[in-house]
Amino acid sequence: MKFLFAFLLLLSICSFQLIAKPDTVHIGMYLTSLHDLDLSAHSFKYDAYYWCRYSNPSFDFANEFEVMNSNDVTLESPYIEIVGKDFLFSTKTKATVRQLWKTKDYPFDKQTLVISVESSKNDTTKMVFVCDRKNSRYQDSLENLLPEWNIKNTKFSVTSSKYSTNFGSENLGNTSYNSSFNMVIELERKESFLVLFKLITGVLVAFVISCCVFFIKPFNIDPRFGLCVGGLFATIGNKYIIEGIVPSTNEVTMLDDIHNVTLVFIFLIITISVISLHLYEKGSTKSLKLSRLIDKLSFYIVIISYSGLLIGIIMSHIY
Fold first, then answer.
1. Which residues lie below 8 Å from residue 222, measured CB to CB, with a gap of 6+?
2. What mean pLDDT comes out for the span 143-155?
3. Residue 242 burial class via C-beta count within 10 angstroms: exposed 0-12, middle 13-18, buried 19 and up
4. Backbone dihedral angles phi then psi of residue 68, each to the nearest 5 degrees
5. Residue 89: which of 182, 179, 25 has the closest Cα?
6. What is d(CA 205, CA 38) in angstroms, rounded to the nearest whole number?
7. Helix or strand or coil: residue 220?
């Protein structure tokens, strides 16, 4: 009995030792440039230095270093040197990364960029990353190279990426996991109010011109209704111009709200003009006074209501 127990214990120890632990790779990153943040192309570009320190000579990061969600990656002058008992792989990387921009609150938007790298050949059963947080950071002059953005926060982390496939390897079961090294950058747009004013100047001018019809007598049909129609086309044209700058999404954005409200108010002005014209054409003293009163009150009511809604829309997207 004692012999059987000793045999089973020895077998368990040997089995435990046969389970190989994954090699650890200490990885770090130094971001030197962040540029071409293109909302219409759904991408951004960056330059960075990477380094990996490891002890397993079979790793070949020059051929297995992969930037996730990238369109174009260049590894410049990758090299390996021996540091003590370890290998040190270093390279400068230039990459274009696909990015899903959040434009609902544009130009008061805050963006989160994720730069993620993995090993294309080694899953977590063979290798795991360990973050070199002490030496990972971004270049001090980087913020000066981002004229439209403030860097609010950055953090480095290592996560595990799940893939619902074994990539043809029966030893992995139905799923596999890769160790992923990530840099997360939180950005906030600069001078948002100035950007907003430049974007909606055409809309505001179109609305103010449309409001001027209340000072034109109703029998002047051509200028009274022509200004409103011109305001409608100017607002619609401004909307198409903005969509060329800010990519269209399935969400209703702040700029969509501003354009839609402007169109509704211009249509309301046309409706009021029709009512005023109808009263004016009756020709009675009472209807003429009522027509003038409607025009006078409508000007102030429309201006105040539109301004209040516009401020409310902007404030709701800031906070």
1. none
2. 91
3. buried
4. -75, 150
5. 25
6. 29
7. coil
Work out the angle between the directed axes of helices 192-211 and 285-318 (0-180°, nearest 10). 170
Per-chain mean pLDDT for the chain? 88
DSSP assignments along 274-310, one per residue: HHHHHHHHH--HHHHHHHHHHHHHHHHHHHHHHHHHH
Q: What is the rounded CA–CA span in Å between residue 256 and residue 254?
A: 5
pLDDT band (50, 70, 90) for residue 70: very high
Q: How far is CA 87 from CA 25, 81, 101, 178, 294, in A?
A: 10, 6, 38, 21, 83
Give the C-alpha separation, 15 to 28, whole Å: 35
The domains of the chain, with CATH numbers, are: 19-189 (2.70.170.10), 193-318 (1.20.58.390)
Q: Of 172, 182, 132, whose CA–CA distance to 26 is shortest?
A: 132
- Collapse the DSSP code of 4 into the 3-class scheme (helix H, G, I; strand E, B; otherwise coil) and give the result: helix
| Residue from 211, 208, 212, 219 nearest 291 by CA | 219
For 215-227, what is each residue's pLDDT tens digit? 888 788 888 888 8
Integer CA distances (angstroms), 245 to 99, 213, 255, 317, in order: 16, 32, 12, 19
Q: Which amino acid is at 132?
A: D
pLDDT value, residue 18: 39
